[in-house]
Design brief:
The protein is mainly α. 51% of the residues lie in helices and 11% in strands. Among the domains are: 54 residues, Classic Zinc Finger (Double Stranded RNA Binding Domain); 42 residues, Classic Zinc Finger (Double Stranded RNA Binding Domain, 2-Layer Sandwich), CATH 3.30.160.
């Protein structure tokens, strides 16, 4: 190879120029014909694709030009992973990902973790992985002191402090700190809900929402109150509940100063000041501030007699006394 390279370098410049001029016209003409043919083929293919009926996912409405692509996409909803590695048992939903993974086992240069047996095709990736076992986090945030195993993770975290949001939604212009957050946001526009509950068929746009939903079926309530041992499926519900014990009422009405434990209760209270009456009777079009008042009013149309609550009766007796 070295000899050939040296021989090529010793070609006479005049001869090289003659060869270039001799073939230039031929190559240019051939290239132009090739480009014309490609353009015509591309236009023909585009017309064919446009006239072809599209294949639409019934779960999320996403469309595909080929049935095979729809079939692969459906694995997101079904969770099917037909390609399984016989070496380690790991499964994949696409053949391409499976093929890439197999290089770890077939390559002579595969790097294996001595702690857990996990394999990597690159030594650098194994080095990153080893930090999971050693606990090493060499990349430290100068703003808050939080440390990370990878530089990329630190750079991503630093955007919280700097306010940089490099990922922008093309639909509404909203910007995000991280790409996964943008991807999740985009599903609001596309309507895609790739995560489906295997119990009831309900779909979600984020995996975290599906995991929380699954607690309805499993009955799992992982968040427990240390005061009364009442448990909840969501952390937010526990935080609201804790205000019963702490007496905290963080939501204050700016009009009259009354405080509330939940923002929803403040919103309902504000109707007294704004005069908003969102509940309308379908029979007489009378409006009400609260839903409970509408329900009581509807008894007039149904012919049922209004009944006082026991607590009202007790108050009446005390007042009479």
């Amino acid at each position: 190879l070295i000899a050939l390279k040296e021989e090529g370098q010793e070609l006479d410049e005049t001869e090289e120029k003659d060869q270039y001029e001799k073939h230039h016209d031929f190559v240019t003409e051939k290239y132009n014909r090739s480009q014309t043919k490609k353009k015509a083929s591309s236009q023909k293919r585009a017309q064919k694709t446009g006239s072809r009926s599209r294949f639409t996912c019934k779960q999320c409405g996403k469309s595909f030009s080929r049935h095979g692509h729809l079939k692969i996409h459906m694995r997101i909803h079904t969770g099917e992973k037909p390609f399984t590695c016989q070496q380690c048992g790991k499964s994949f939903d696409q053949k391409r990902a499976f093929t890439v993974h197999m290089r770890i086992h077939t390559s002579d240069s595969a790097f294996t973790c001595q702690q857990c047996g996990k394999c990597y095709s690159r030594k650098e990736n194994l080095r990153y992985h080893m930090r999971v076992h050693t606990g090493e986090k060499p990349f430290i945030c100068k703003h808050c002191g939080k440390s990370f195993t990878r530089r990329g993770s630190l750079e991503s975290h630093a955007r919280i402090h700097t306010g940089v949001k490099p990922y922008t939604c093309s639909q509404c212009g909203r910007s995000f700190t991280h790409r996964p957050t943008l991807n999740a946001h985009m599903r609001m526009h596309t309507g895609e809900k790739p995560y489906t509950c295997s119990q009831c068929g309900r779909s979600f746009d984020q995996l975290g929402n599906l995991n929380v939903h699954m607690r309805i079926h499993t009955g799992e309530n992982p968040f427990s109150c240390q005061q009364c041992e009442k448990s909840f499926s969501r952390k937010g519900n526990l935080e609201v509940h804790m205000r019963i014990h702490t007496g905290e009422s963080p939501y204050t009405c700016q009009q009259c100063g009354i405080c509330f434990t939940q923002k929803g209760n403040l919103n309902i209270h504000m109707r007294l000041h704004t005069g908003e009456k969102p509940f309308t009777c379908q029979h007489c079009k009378k409006t009400f501030t609260y839903q409970r008042d509408l329900k009581r009013h509807l008894q007039i149309h149904s012919g049922k007699k209004l009944q006082c609550r026991p607590v009202w009766q007790e108050v009446y007796k005390i007042e009479q006394f």
